[in-house]
Amino acid sequence: MRVLLLTLCTLPLFGWNPQEDVNVNSRYTVEKVSISGRLSSRVSVELRREMESVVGQKLDHGVLDRLAARIRRDLRVQNVSVRVHRGDLPEHVKVEFEIESGHRQGFDVNVPKLAYHSRQGFSAAGEVATTVRRTALTFGVLSDGDELVERFSGVQARVERESLGTRRLRAGFEFDSYHEDWNGATVAALASEPGSPGLYRTRQNFQPSLTVVMAPALTWTFGVSVEQLEMEGPGARTEYANSAYGTLRFHKSWENTETNHQVLDAGYSLRAATRALDSDFVYVRHAGKVRYDLVKGHNEVTVEFRAGGIAGRAPMFERFVLGNASTLRGWNKFELDPLGGDRAVHGAVDYRYRRLTVFYDTGVLWNGPVNTGEKHGAGFGFRSEGKEGFLLAVAFPLRSGHVDPVFIAGFNF
Asked: Residues 14-49, buried b or exposed e (16+ Cβ, 10 A)?
């Protein structure tokens, strides 16, 4: 037995391909299943659960091949390698599905967001993506009245090189061009706000970036954003919000044989606009978010917390918003503060059993020394595939007086 285990450990050093020797190793038990590669985050929840089902089973290469074929088909990639490694326990192995870099087959058409809020209307985004020789190309169109104070409509284009000599370093460039529409409540509030940053008709963004993979679960993205704003009013002028930025992201998932699945996502971003970058706006913006998902059988719980703050004079698109399709559900962002806020804190808990979901939100928004006070919202509805699945729900602001429900529908928000 010791000789056999020693052989299993040393074969990878000599270029052993586990796919060729699966029959020899079929008496080994699968201890863990993992998936790696740049597109691994696109694997569906259902497929991940199917992969987890082989944990605790005897090594069966036919099953692994079928799972690899499913991944290739779902992600439209050319090759998914199945690698078998020695486990931590005797006569156990770990299975890794590696999505290999290379040319993707054809074009992917995605809908990153589709949302309806009965107080704020529809928001939608669509994109076409492909990968050519380790370079990902994406072009999208959108009209979003949910995320920011204003509705912004236009196009996005992104180019990302997935490795610069090493897979730990990636480079990207993004171009955005938007036309802005403003709610009447925002226009009226700005007219009486001294020293307001002002409204703009159009916004363009040029944003090169570098991403460093500091650890398998930790990435750091940094770069420069050049934002060009065509301001409204007589004597139309152009102003710039040029900034240096950095974003630190952490993603970790845990799986076990009892079909438990846990995911922790955390992120912190810093954006600083200075005169040194020839910016007309000078400010520093901090934003952080933590989300924890727990799936056990048909039960799923999501806990989320986010907070942020701005120091200095920032343009309207940088201001924080609560009261949309994903924060303080049941409230109207223009009722809370039509100008958004320079500080915000928000927390939410979602529970889902099969398709039925219930949720609770709480948050506070500040605009200078004035705040909205702590607000609460709750609701229920139907959702598929976790928090990114399709949602049809009704939400209520928790306050004394009349009940004024908000209807929310869509997915990926």
From this structure: eeeebeeebeebeebbbbbbbbebbbeebbbbebbe
